[in-house]
Specification:
Number of helices: 12
Helix content: 55-70%
Distance between the termini: 59 Å
Structural class: mainly alpha
Radius of gyration: 28 Å
Number of strands: 3
């Protein structure tokens, strides 16, 4: 199999399946075109659309997390007596406004995620999707309330903040409530949303509402991703295998550039940058080995070489630029040296 240089409407990769050497030739002839054509492969299209949907999920979860952070900030700040002084009124109002904005943002992101999920499933049907949606959301009054909230706020205006602070022997609790009477000033809630409002006589606790709903949505989307792979797993896996091969070419080129040119020419000590690539747990693992030993450097390579492209030649280069010592690791017994 050979790579032919592309012209308008022609293909560099040709038709799959592709072996590693064919992908290598195409990648080094035109890496941008190779990646572009790989992403047009059926599995690539599905996978990248899934990534986009997962991004919508992340945006929703982040919006809810930001809202929770603001509510917790108010809880902390309001525990200080000086927070309620007239001179701090601006701080109080500022947090309150941010919470109201966060509530609206979370509701809007929830609606956008629903729309995105529906559009995805129209293109790539998933077995059991409608039944799972019905089981998780159709009879969920909380879901209907959140998805009506954005429209409700548009007609009501952002509802006035209602903080409820209680102190008992169990401790201090702070709640941000949407009062029932305020919400019912809008007459167009659907039946389930209105049922949810009526069930909360003291008002809807914003923190409890979005915290529980966010967990529910994440659980559904975990099912969604698994179900997608159940149906399209073969083509997705094939794409991801090709993608890892192509990524390995880029990774090996980067290793060569770093170890043969940048690091030695600029006299960089790679140890100074380990914290950018390894977690604290991984660093502890690495530093449990003799410092700058080949064994330690081998461990670093094993952790950062995701695509397993470090050749013997590159490993020797790594030993050299890391200042490897020849001392081997001393053996210890469980009771000590």
């Amino acid at each position: 199999m050979t790579c032919s240089r592309t012209t308008e409407g022609s293909s560099l990769l040709g038709s799959p399946p592709w072996d590693k050497e064919h992908l290598r030739r195409c990648y080094f002839r035109d890496f941008r075109q190779t990646r572009h054509e790989l992403d047009q492969f059926e599995g690539g299209v599905i996978f990248n659309e899934l990534k986009s949907l997962r991004l919508s999920l992340s945006i929703f979860v982040d919006a809810v997390d930001d809202l929770m952070t603001l509510i917790n900030r108010f809880k902390f700040e309001s525990s200080r007596p000086e927070f309620w002084h007239q001179t701090n009124r601006h701080s109080y109002t500022q947090i309150e406004t941010k919470i109201q904005r966060g509530m609206l943002s979370s509701a809007m992101c929830a609606m956008a995620l629903v729309d995105h999920s529906r559009a995805f499933v129209k293109k790539y049907p998933i077995d059991g999707y409608e039944e799972q949606v019905a089981a998780c959301f159709q009879k969920d009054d909380r879901h209907r309330f959140i998805h009506s909230l954005r429209v409700g706020i548009t007609h009501l205006g952002v509802t006035k903040a209602n903080w409820e602070i209680n102190v008992s022997k169990e401790g201090r609790t702070v709640s941000f409530l949407l009062r029932k009477d305020d919400l019912l000033r809008w007459n167009n809630w659907n039946a389930q949303a209105k049922s949810f409002i009526l069930a909360h006589e003291k008002g809807v606790d914003v923190e409890a509402l979005f915290e529980a709903y966010s967990r529910h949505v994440e659980k559904f989307h975990n099912w969604f991703r698994i179900s997608l792979f159940n149906k399209y797993g073969a083509t997705l896996s094939e794409y991801l295998r090709y993608l890892r091969i192509v990524n390995s070419f880029e990774s090996q080129a980067n290793w060569n550039l770093l170890l043969k040119q940048i690091v030695p020419q600029q006299k960089i000590d790679p140890y100074m940058y380990l914290g950018q690539y390894l977690t604290e747990e991984q660093l502890e693992d690495v530093f449990s080995l003799p410092f700058r030993s080949k064994e330690q450097i081998d461990r670093i390579i094993a952790l950062v070489d995701v695509y397993r492209v470090c050749t013997n030649e590159l490993r020797e280069d790594a030993y050299r630029v890391c200042g490897a010592k020849t001392t081997s690791r001393g053996k210890t017994s469980p009771d000590g040296p």
